[in-house]
Write a structure and sequence with these properties.
The complex is a heterodimer of chains A (about 500) and B (about 550). Chain A has about 500 residues and is α+β, with helices and mostly antiparallel strands. Chain A has 14 helices and 17 strands. Chain A is globular and about 85 Å long. At the A-B interface, helix 1, strand 1, strand 2, helix 5 and helix 6 of A face helix 2, strand 3, strand 4, helix 4 and helix 7 of B. Bound molecules: pyridoxal-5'-phosphate (2 copies). Chain B: Its EC number is 2.6.1.57.
């Protein structure tokens, strides 16, 4: 692991000899290893070979060898002398809002040679390796250990191109055409839009306010009839355990344990898509904006304890956890990280080599400079606390607006404990034409009326993996993520008007 | 809570958004192309209007034929792929006064990035040293767009974008493409990729199904094989000469295709690297390209034209230093463009070419940005796929490239840069060729001077090997390879680039690159290679 040269890259950041290194996570003290998943891998994943060039690795790191081998361009021809970026200083994130004191981080072309940094532009902008830059990977591995501490020995992280890309690769690794994947009855639309072209069918599990209902999951799997379903019993489950998109639900710890036990019982492998994990919010809604907007120095922000992830209860290594920088730093970095057993991570690294290769080097070096050289592990946790405070303000503003403007008889909701979304349940049976036009008719009318009233809300059916399944309820998803809190009352008032006019409700 | 910026990205879905830059108020560097940029058409930047390269073309294409349709070879996967369902709401985002509680994009307020600075070389002062000494610092602020300083900023670029890439950079890319290739059909489009490796993966998924065979050069880019194999796709290698793949051979393979012997339907896809091919360094002449295109028409074959080395085309190698030096004179933009062998794209009357371009070899691989050019039908499918997988290149890379290419250098500055790179690579190529002339035993090794790219392809006359035919070609290759390593140099084995290792091979090659090492190391490396060869073949030094 001490190799300084990645082979394909001739760069400084690589350790291509991926399979032979130790767990790399510093968790050698745990004595159980992950199970093997050979029986669940797709044809595509099984056929995926390591690059033949890996054979060269040992040779290239030998300083006595003059390489006329790999054809990467010389960094001399990268027209970037340095890049710098202003970011909040770790200690000062305390001062909330963008008034935080800023520090400038700078990456020069040849910092490494000059002994200034472990990572510089000449290697970030060179071809890299499918694991992502070692420097950033080390930081995320340490972070994962601190936050999730997976209870088995041979887990690993890999830097990905964000969760959408990671999901695409995970599906290609674990499914063949015609197989079923279990998901929630309402789920993140891109997940099934990504899956269905692969010939993968999604079966939705019924939800309650804590996510998928364990007894339902058990029932579906226990009663699986291969002939009737024309497919093998599913071995893969996709879920968004925290601040679920679209329902806003967060699985309690108990729920997580129940689902994990069922996964063990039925040999299910779990795709844990958790981009909202760090945006966990307090249960209580503040009555007044002022309660939360006062700048509270960071040290005294009441930290919302993070619920344990599925990864952190994963004794078998059956969880493929996807984390993303999109919601916690910026989507335009197109970077995230996956944690799973080393067998599975190795398959993803191979898949990277013949697709995205690795995330943008600009993104990787900025993340490394920000996280590793500027903030450190604690600084990153402080940033999460800052986000939690900010999103709490937004959530509470939207909730107050809903209490005030939505007709209580028609609309109901739960307080989201994480993420970006609120899920409004519509008592559709109260609609004067409920019997005639049904759930879908009511949903459509509300959607259209809301647009006429000047507000866009998203119909629940858009999140249904299988739209042919009849629904019992009508839902709309609304978000507090990006709308300014001062506009929220107006937005919700319009939605309320639309509901009133559809349901002919007079208060 | 911070005062929000006046202009935010509007969510189209949870993972895509648009801003509305106003090209009228935005300061752009003026050069020829900018002067001609269509100014009236504001709607092209409109809310929720996906960036469509058609809006960025300058020439008129109405009189040209439309591309053929390719439904019959599109994979099931690509055919049934739908766009993002949340995009259904996009059309309403343009409605004045509408407030969206829809797409859940994070607010730029929570991006911990304020100001991005970048030191880059000035036009004409491109060397690393000059960039350091006289380079200029360009800056992107968080809210430059709202503050009318620029049409692209951190708030926009660091948020979700479109699978096609941002309108800002896509405009530049489309203009560049139009400047370089005279595309003979009407409905061509560009869309961004995250590099050609990914574009290859995505296009194979679009055009093939498991069990298919596709065509390519007999020695080919190893990653292409590694990408195809897990998809259940095998490659039929086409014999080559110094100008790359042989059209007659390709015609023959297709005309005599035996489905049962090959175990696959007749190929409908050609993967080719026409310029500075990896690994052979071969460059197809214009005539060769025309002939290949004709064969593709005859058998209705679709073409993936992978061209990362297109701008690394050099002057012919003359051997004498003075002539070589004169070839290094700067050329005008017109001469530079004129000197490039026309692309397959520019001969593509049918719209049967998907061209892959990449910034990897000309700016930097780490930016992970490239683009594809093809007919609208194909590009639309590509974008849909990007929407649900890569989501386009990193916004940060896009912002940086746009700052450099559009705001700072402009098209002309970029052509100057390409001219600079080309001169540099010409010099490097000359170094390796002179070293080969000086140090290699001509009786057992021969070569053709590469006209483009990064690779020098050395043919070994294995029949002269003392152990031939007791040892097989591959054994001799291995023996030489290890001996070269013993002598402290590394060259790549030709067999690593077999398009299909099931095929019989009666050639033995090594690939040497002149892309990265400094001149003295290239020379020394070749010298060591020569020593190893002499030893191996028992030739007196
Ligand atoms: C559940 C879920 N997964 C994944 C994503 C996208 O993540 P990324 O930006 O990392 O691709 C989103 C974004 O909305 C999401 O809600
Ligand atoms: C023929 C060919 N295509 C594609 C690539 C990779 O391009 P990109 O960096 O855009 O993925 C290479 C790089 O070696 C190459 O030689």
């Amino acid at each position: 692991m001490q190799h300084k040269n990645g082979f394909q890259s001739g760069s400084q950041n690589g350790d291509l000899d991926f399979t032979s290194c130790d767990a790399g996570n510093g968790c050698l003290n745990k004595n159980n290893f992950a199970k093997r998943w050979d029986h669940l891998l797709s044809k595509e994943a099984i056929t995926r070979q390591g690059s033949i060039f890996q054979a060269m690795h040992g040779t290239l790191v030998d300083p006595a060898i003059l390489s006329l081998g790999p054809g990467a361009p010389s960094p001399e021809y990268f027209p970037f002398d340095h890049t710098s970026l202003q970011v909040p200083s770790a200690r000062e994130i305390a001062v909330l809002g963008p008034n935080y004191a800023k520090v400038t981080l700078t990456a020069n072309k040849n910092d490494t040679r000059a002994g200034r940094s472990d990572y510089d532009l000449s290697s970030a902008l060179q071809y890299g390796v499918g694991t992502g830059a070692r420097q950033l990977l080390d930081f995320m591995t340490e972070h994962t250990k601190q936050v999730h501490n997976p209870p088995y020995q041979d887990w690993k992280c890999v830097i990905t191109g964000g969760n959408t890309s990671a999901l695409d690769l995970a599906l290609r690794t674990f499914t063949d055409r015609g197989s079923y994947v279990l998901a929630d009855e309402y789920t993140y639309a891109t997940a099934f839009e990504c899956a269905s072209p692969l010939g993968v069918k999604i079966l939705g599990i019924k939800l309650d306010e804590e996510g998928p209902i364990p007894s339902e999951l058990d029932r579906v799997l226990t009663g699986w009839n291969e002939d009737r379903m024309e497919s093998k019993k599913p071995h893969l489950m996709y879920m968004v355990p925290t601040g679920h998109n679209p329902t806003g639900a967060t699985q309690s710890l108990e729920r997580r344990h129940e689902i994990y036990r069922l996964a063990q019982k039925h040999d299910l492998y779990i795709l844990e898509d958790d981009p909202y994990y760090y945006i966990q919010l307090p249960a209580n809604v503040s009555e007044h904006v002022e309660d939360v907007t006062q700048s509270i120095p960071f040290s005294v922000v009441p930290k919302t304890d993070l619920l344990p992830s599925l990864l952190s209860i994963d004794t078998d290594g059956r969880v493929f956890r996807m984390d993303s920088f999109s919601k916690i730093l910026a989507p335009g970095l197109r970077t995230g990280w996956v944690t799973a057993s080393s067998q599975v991570v190795e398959r993803i690294v191979r898949a990277h080599e013949t697709s995205l290769q690795n995330p943008s080097g600009f993104s990787q070096i900025v993340l490394y400079k920000l996280l590793s050289e500027t903030w450190g592990q604690e600084g990153l946790m402080s940033w999460f606390s800052h986000l939690q405070v900010e999103y709490t303000i937004r959530r509470d503003a939207l909730l107050r607006a809903c209490q005030r403007y939505l007709p209580a008889k028609v609309a109901s909701w739960k307080v989201p404990r994480a993420g970006f979304f609120m899920w409004i349940k519509i008592n559709w049976l109260l609609h004067p034409l409920a019997r005639q036009i049904g759930q879908r008719g009511v949903e459509m009318q509300i959607y259209d009326t809301a647009i006429k009233a000047g507000v866009l809300v998203v119909p629940g059916t858009w999140f249904q993996p299988d739209p042919s399944i009849a629904l019992l309820d009508v839902f709309f998803r609304i978000t507090y993520a990006s709308l300014r809190p001062d506009i929220m009352p107006e937005a919700v008032e319009r939605f309320g008007e639309a509901l009133r006019s559809c349901f002919e409700v007079l208060d | 809570m911070a005062p929000p910026s006046a202009i935010e990205v509007s969510a189209v879905t949870d993972i895509s958004g648009v801003t509305i830059p106003d090209p009228l108020t935005a300061p752009v560097q003026s050069n020829d192309v900018y002067g001609r940029r269509r100014k009236a058409d504001k709607s092209q930047w409109g809310v929720a209007a996906p960036a469509d390269s058609v809006n960025f073309r300058h020439k008129s294409y109405e009189h040209k034929p439309k591309a053929k349709r390719w439904d019959h070879i599109i994979s099931h996967e690509a055919l049934i792929r739908k766009g993002n369902s949340l995009k259904k709401a996009a059309k309403y985002l343009g409605k004045p006064g509408i407030i969206s509680l829809g797409g859940g994009l994070p607010s730029s307020e929570y991006f911990p990035f304020q100001e991005l600075c970048l030191k880059v070389p000035q036009i004409g002062h491109f060397s690393e040293k000059e960039a350091q000494d006289t380079g200029i610092v360009i800056t992107a602020g968080k809210h430059d767009f709202a503050q009318e300083k620029s049409i692209f900023d951190i708030a926009t670029a660091f948020n979700y974008g479109q699978g096609s890439g941002s309108a800002q950079l896509l405009r530049w890319i489309t203009e560049h493409t139009e400047m370089v290739h005279d595309i003979p059909y009407q409905d061509w489009r560009c869309t961004m990729s995250i590099g050609s490796t990914s574009a290859l993966d995505m296009s194979l998924r679009m055009f093939t199904r498991p069990g298919d065979m596709i065509l390519s050069e007999g020695y080919t880019f190893a990653v292409a094989v590694e990408t195809a194999t897990p998809l259940g796709v095998r490659i039929a290698g086409i014999p080559m000469d110094a100008e790359g793949l042989l059209p007659e051979a390709m015609d023959h393979i297709l005309s005599t295709w035996d489905v049962s012997a090959r175990g696959s339907r007749k190929p409908h896809l050609l993967y080719t690297v026409p310029t500075g091919q990896n690994p052979t360094g071969a460059t197809q002449s214009k005539e060769r390209r025309l002939a290949i295109y004709k064969v593709c028409q005859k058998h209705n074959v679709y073409i993936l034209e992978d061209e990362p080395y297109y701008f690394l085309q050099m002057q012919p190698y003359t051997g004498t230093e003075s002539e070589a030096e004169s070839a290094l004179q700067k050329t005008s933009h017109a001469d530079l463009l004129q000197s490039l062998v026309p692309s397959l794209l520019s001969m593509d009357t049918d719209g049967r070419v998907m061209r892959l371009d990449s910034f990897s070899k000309v700016l930097s691989p780490g930016s992970r940005v490239g683009w594809v050019t093809a007919s609208q039908q194909i590009v639309t499918m590509y974008q849909k796929h990007a929407d649900v997988s890569t989501q386009g290149p990193a916004g940060m890379s896009q912002l940086i490239l746009w700052k450099l290419l559009d705001e700072h250098w402009g098209h002309e500055g970029y052509l100057d840069w390409l001219g600079y790179i080309r001169r540099e690579y010409t010099q490097r190529r000359n170094v390796i060729l002179r070293a080969c002339e000086k140090y290699l035993p001509r009786e057992v090794v021969s070569w053709v001077a590469p006209m483009a790219g990064m690779f020098h392809w050395l043919r070994i006359h294995f029949r002269a090997h003392p152990s031939y035919p007791t040892l097989s070609i591959q054994d001799i290759e291995e023996s030489i390879f290890l001996r070269v390593i013993d002598h402290g140099a590394l060259v790549m084995r030709g067999s690593w680039f077999y398009a299909n290792d099931q095929d019989e091979h009666d050639t033995l090659f090594f690939r040497a690159t002149y892309a990265a090492a400094p001149a003295e190391k290239i020379e020394e490396g070749i010298r060591r290679f020569g020593v190893a060869l002499r030893e191996e073949f028992g030739i007196e030094g």
